[in-house]
């Protein structure tokens, strides 16, 4: 580097070598170097990248004062004066600000300054690091994180991270929300064992066994269980995890999710009920009757008795023809209620066809004749059979 262009200050060879050293260090570290006279607060030296980044020639930049490149509206002259006084008092300072280029574009920078003496005169040597790209990356990370948080909230999926070394967990905001965990006591739910206390007691043993099995085998963990939230409500969740191990095969980390499947379970139960239920009487329909009968017949011992009765309403079609289908529907609903009242609570009742009902009995079956149950008194005709 040559002597500062446009400077009226006398520079000795020793001072020039010191400035050259400063510039070399700045070039090697990829930062800009600005040297300001402490008394006049004007630039007296800079490296090439410093004036290039700002869009000035070396002579143009050295003719400016420190305020000329300041681009942060909140960092006005009084703010600069206060920072300068702090620098003089402490001998060094570091702060973030904005610099204005010659074409009025703004760059975010970090300025680290130190007071040095050259030829008996004091100068401020500042290393300027452009933070524009890093701020853009930080902004992108914040936006991606917010996108993840929003996506978790919409999908009702929370994420977590477990370190096996100490058993501590990290929870995403949605994870805490699903578990009903408030920020006031968030630190209390910070380990795998603490999470286990949220698992419903009836599900806890199975959950623990399946998690241990996944860790031992290196399998992906998948388990459905209930958790009890802080407010006492229960929630059915699906928990998944992927595990990682060290070179000796010891578990290091588990990263996973939990998902609220309560609505899904309710929907599946509702769909199952709709597929198997007769909408008029509320009894199981023909499909459910056949499935139930098939299930009960499977694996029965030779002398294990089972009674199957088919019951229909005599003259039902005439009732529909003479009085209308509404009256016929009322009769069928009354018939279903009457059967429930007459039969034992363990009797199984379903609707096979329009006016035909199916009754399955397993208790008090002593012979191939009519079972000893009040159902015999309400049947117009019936059949019984042994299932083995």
Quick overview:
This protein has helices at residues 13-29, 48-54, 58-62, 77-90, 132-155, 173-178, 192-196, 201-217, 262-276, 286-297, 316-323, 325-342; strands at residues 32-37, 43-46, 92-100, 106-118, 121-130, 157-163, 169-171, 221-228, 234-245, 251-260, 307-312, 348-351, 356-361. It is of the alpha+beta class and 388 residues long. Helix 11 (316-323) packs across helix 12.
Describe, in plain words, how this protein is organized in 3D:
This protein is of the alpha+beta class and 388 residues long. The chain has 3 domains: 118 residues, 2-Layer Sandwich (Beta-Lactamase); 130 residues, PAS domain (Beta-Lactamase), CATH 3.30.450.20; 100 residues, Reverse transcriptase/Diguanylate cyclase domain (Alpha-Beta Plaits, 2-Layer Sandwich). Helix content is 38%, strand content 25%. The chain has 12 helices and 13 strands. It has a 5-stranded antiparallel beta sheet with strand order 2-1-5-4-3, with helices on both faces. A 5-stranded antiparallel beta sheet has the order 7-6-10-9-8. A hairpin with a 2-residue loop joins β4 and β5. The longest helix has 24 residues. It is elongated, with a radius of gyration of 41 Å. The termini are far apart. The N terminus and C terminus are likely disordered.
Q: What does the average pLDDT come to?
A: 81
**Rg, Cα atoms, Å:** 41 Å
Q: How many helices in DSSP terms?
A: 12
- Compressed to H and E, one letter per element, the order equals HEEHHHEEEHEEHHHEEEHHEHHEE
| CATH level-1 class of the largest domain | Alpha Beta
Stretches where pLDDT is under 50 for at least 5 consecutive residues are 1-8, 371-388
Which bin fits the share of residues in helices? Answer: 25-40%
Strand content: 25-35%
> Please, what is the CATH homologous superfamily of the largest domain?
PAS domain
Give the tally of β-strands. Answer: 13
- Structural class of the helix and strand makeup? alpha+beta
Q: Examine the coordinates and then state which fold CATH places here, giving the name of the CATH topology of the largest domain.
A: Beta-Lactamase
The backbone outline, from C-alpha atoms, is elongated
Give the biggest sheet.
5 strands, antiparallel
In CATH terms, what is the architecture of the largest domain? 2-Layer Sandwich
């Amino acid at each position: 580097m040559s002597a500062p262009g446009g400077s009226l200050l006398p520079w000795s060879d020793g001072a020039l070598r010191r400035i050259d050293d400063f510039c070399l260090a700045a070039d090697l570290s990829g930062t800009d170097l600005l040297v300001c006279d402490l008394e006049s607060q004007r630039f007296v030296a800079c490296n090439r990248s410093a004036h290039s980044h700002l869009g000035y020639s070396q002579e143009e930049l050295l003719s400016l004062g420190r305020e000329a490149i300041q681009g942060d509206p909140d960092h006005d002259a009084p703010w600069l004066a206060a920072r300068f006084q702090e620098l003089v008092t402490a001998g060094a300072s570091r702060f973030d600000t904005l610099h204005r280029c010659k074409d009025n574009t703004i760059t975010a920078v970090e300025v680290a300054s130190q007071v040095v003496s050259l030829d008996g005169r004091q100068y401020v040597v500042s290393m300027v690091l452009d933070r524009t790209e890093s701020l853009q990356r930080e902004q992108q990370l914040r936006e991606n994180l917010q996108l993840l948080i929003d996506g978790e909230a919409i999908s009702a999926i929370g994420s977590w991270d477990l370190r096996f070394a100490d058993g501590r967990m990290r929870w995403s905001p949605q994870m805490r929300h699903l578990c009903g965990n408030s920020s006031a006591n968030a630190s209390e739910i910070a380990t795998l064992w603490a999470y286990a206390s949220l698992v419903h007691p009836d599900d806890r043993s199975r959950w623990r066994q399946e998690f241990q099995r996944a860790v031992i085998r290196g399998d992906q963990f998948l388990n459905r269980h209930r958790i009890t939230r802080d407010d006492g409500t229960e929630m059915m969740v699906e928990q998944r995890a992927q595990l990682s191990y060290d070179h000796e095969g010891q578990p290091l980390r588990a990263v996973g999710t939990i998902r609220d499947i309560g609505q899904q379970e309710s929907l599946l139960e509702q769909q199952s009920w709709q597929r198997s239920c007769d909408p008029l009487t509320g009894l199981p329909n023909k499909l459910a009757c056949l499935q139930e009968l098939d299930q009960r017949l499977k694996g029965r011992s030779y002398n294990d008795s089972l009674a199957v009765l088919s019951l229909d309403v005599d003259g039902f079609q005439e009732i529909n023809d003479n009085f209308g289908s509404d009256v016929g529907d009322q009769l069928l609903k009354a018939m279903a209620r009457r059967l429930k009242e007459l039969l034992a609570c363990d009797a199984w009742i379903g609707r096979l066809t329009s006016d035909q009902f199916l009754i399955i009995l397993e208790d008090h079956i002593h012979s191939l004749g009519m079972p000893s149950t009040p159902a015999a008194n309400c049947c117009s005709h019936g059949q019984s059979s042994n299932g083995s």
